[in-house]
Amino acid sequence: QVQLVESGGGLVQAGGSLRLSCAASGRSSSMYHMGWFRQAPGKERELVAAINWASGSTAYADSVKGRFTISRDNAKNTVYLQMIRLRPEDTAVYYCAADSSWHTMVVGTITGIDYWGQGTQVTVSS
């Protein structure tokens, strides 16, 4: 069992920045691929960014490339999502995710994800 606890959401003006954190704990939690998903009202949950636990490879949704950066501190077992140049369309609940399959993570197979955090709200005002 892996527990994921997100923090760092909030309200920010367009063009601003936020950093989300996700602390992972539990058995073998450091050996899971980690990702950030988001879900806006009335929309499906979508993959934002992911990081491979073994290689450190990353993957991003086209809409956030160049603006968001995912990183991982293995010593703290924490994954971060640094978000800059935020836009109103980035407004959503952001969820941390952990999965043992890199394919499942990058394809964004929502129903296949092993573990989810509780979510943190990010609101970008125009």
Order of helices and strands: EEEEEEEEEHEE
User: What gross morphology would you assign?
Assistant: globular
Low-confidence stretches: none
The span between the termini is 40 Å
Q: What do the pLDDT scores average to?
A: 94
Task: Please count the helical segments.
Answer: 1
Tell me the structural class: mainly beta
Count every beta strand, where a strand is a DSSP E run of 2 or more residues. Answer: 11
Note down, in words, how this protein is organized.
The protein has 1 helix and 11 strands, in the order βββββββββαββ. With 126 residues, the chain is mainly beta. Strands 2, 4, 5, 6, 9, 10 and 11 form a 7-stranded mixed β-sheet that branches. The protein is globular. The model has no long low-confidence stretch (mean pLDDT 94).
Summarize this entry quickly.
The protein has 126 residues and is mainly β.
